[in-house]
From TrEMBL:
A family per Pfam: CPT
The protein, known as: Phosphotransferase
SUPFAM superfamilies: P-loop containing nucleoside triphosphate hydrolases
Record Gene3D superfamilies: P-loop containing nucleotide triphosphate hydrolases
InterPro entries, sorted: P-loop_NTPase (IPR027417)
């Protein structure tokens, strides 16, 4: 049975770097997808998530999550292990996994310290990812990070503060990440 892993956490937590490294360790055959592909896919009429999102922003977010779950299932049906990276929070995590069938599901939540996320975000050129979430970058990270509290306490939660991507992947025990 194919393994399907959801790697989630905050923006700048390392998801899109860790997911392909993990997939490469799992396979062959293995594939990966960054959910941002679907976020960037809406080229006209895109609505971003904010602390008080519009109905359309929520609809587009759910379309993004549903699309990545469908792709994960498609690859799993073809016998591939699959790793998806995306910011999936709260009840959306359970819904994401509920769309899968006949797979071994795993959840990895990356939870570096706020200071680590701020440093990474500044290294990327600024606070654009958190601009709608607080008066400062730190406040924005803390506000969005509250969404982690709504994820069921299942899977593997990793504080990646001070770790390289390779160190994080080396420390992943998939059995502990089982959904």
């Amino acid at each position: 049975m194919a393994k399907v892993v959801l790697v989630t956490g905050m923006q700048a937590a390392g998801k899109s770097t860790i997911a392909p490294l993990l997939a490469a360790r799992m396979g062959p055959p293995a594939a990966t997808l960054d959910g941002d592909v679907f976020y960037r896919g809406v080229v006209a009429g895109a609505e971003v998530m904010t602390p008080d999102p519009s109905a359309e922003a929520v609809r587009q977010l759910q379309l993004r999550y549903d699309a990545s779950a469908l792709v994960a299932q498609h690859y799993a049906d073809a016998g591939f292990d699959f790793v998806c990276s995306d910011i999936v929070l709260g009840e959306h995590v359970e819904r994401w996994f509920s769309r899968l069938h006949d797979v071994d599901p795993y959840l990895i939540v990356l939870v570096p310290a706020v200071e680590s996320i701020v440093e990474r975000e500044i290294g990327r050129g600024g606070a654009n990812s958190y601009r709608d979430w607080g008066p400062s970058l730190e406040d924005g990270v803390r506000a969005l990070q509250a969404g982690l509290d709504d994820i069921p306490r299942r899977g593997l939660w990793i504080d990646t503060t001070g770790q390289t991507a390779a160190e994080t992947v080396d420390g992943i025990d998939l059995e502990k990440a089982r959904w």
